[in-house]
Amino acid sequence: EVQLVESGGGLVTPGGSLRLSCVASGLNFNTAWMSWVRQAPGYGLEWVGRIKSKVQGGTTEYAAPVRGRFTISRDDSENTIFLQMNSLKNEDTAVYYCTTADAVPLNWGQGTLVTVSS
Amino acid sequence: DIQMTQSPSSLSASVGDRVTITCRASQGIRNDLGWYQQKPGEAPKRLIYAASTLQSGVPSRFSGSGSGTDFTLTISSLQPEDFATYYCLQHNNYPPTFGQGTRLEIK
Question: Which of A35, A89, B6, B71 is most exposed, with minimal Cβ within 10 Å?
């Protein structure tokens, strides 16, 4: 059974930084593409970005609202992906979910809440 | 980006009703579409992928159809556990984009 566990959320002031982690188990992490999806309180789902497996280049793609501020990375030795979030804005407040990056993601973590507020 | 227009945004129905939710893409996406169910405080759950393929373990009262720009999710006979919010997702073009959601409420 695939399990994804996010951590690192919390309260941060506008302009600040935060790093989220997602530990995966139950899958061949070395070949897995992984994504982040977010959901602002009371709103819908928004794709944030994706990282390919290192075998396929480990390249990343980002949604326009976060491009240049957010960075996704991975540590295959720890079965973990990260979301480094810089220059945070109020509108980045959301639950951030880690998912497998299949076409229609099957596996999701429980989410971690990021609140950007002064 | 491809825009996904989902309708209705909310819907009241009774147990046993047949319900249809639609999603329209701003351009053709073949059958590169999935449907999710989300309950409060939970992560989304995949119901359908490739527009019409039922996820293993999902009850057969759920079905999906469509291709190109117009898609539907149908629940043939609503059960109490089906009251939730439903989202479509296209993955034909990057970035993947979701519909705005349909909140299904008990009448």
Answer: A89
Could you give the angle at the alpha carbon of B4 between the alpha carbons of A94 and A73, nearest 5°? 45
| Residues in Cβ contact with A101 at an 8 Å cutoff, skipping those fewer than 6 apart | A32, A33, A34, A35, A50, A51, A52
Whether A112 and A20 have beta carbons less than 8 Å apart is answered as: yes
**For the segment B54-80, what is each residue's pLDDT rounded down to a tens digit?**
999 999 999 999 999 999 999 999 999
Q: Per the CB < 8 Å rule, is B49 touching A46?
A: no
For A12, half-sphere exposure in the C-beta direction (CA atoms, 13 angstrom radius) is 22
Encode pLDDT of A17-46 as tens digits.
999 999 999 999 999 999 999 999 999 999
Element (DSSP H or E) covering residue B104: strand B102-106
Is A23 within 8 Å of A32 (Cβ atoms)?
Answer: no
